[in-house]
Design brief:
Strand content: 35-45%
Order of helices and strands: EEEEEEEH
Number of helices: 1
Structural class: mainly beta
Low-confidence stretches: none
Number of strands: 7
Number of domains: 1
Shape: globular
Radius of gyration: 15 Å
Mean pLDDT: 87
Length: 112
Amino acid sequence: MPHAGHFICGHMCRFRMNTHVNGCIVSTVGEYAPSHVLERGEMRLRRDGDAVEEVGAGRLYETMVFPAVPSGEGCCPFVAVPDAGPLDVAAYNDAVAAFAGHMVMLDKWGSR
């Protein structure tokens, strides 16, 4: 799917993979590069445009798996079940590991 499948700021991630497999959404995001940052209580434009921030504590990339339901609208035929927590999670700190991890999750959840 052409967008992030999780993370409220996923649209600001340069790395996004979002795949439906066997009734689940497998979503990997990373390289979070917000255009604005909070500095001393005020929002400002980023000065370091190439810098990326963590998507979670101690990780630059993460994969999460959620149960999926048909969307019935929009660009995607499936969406994550509203208010459902993740079924599986993995964390990485480089793009190669994040891509490989997404593939591992597809194999794991696709074979269930």
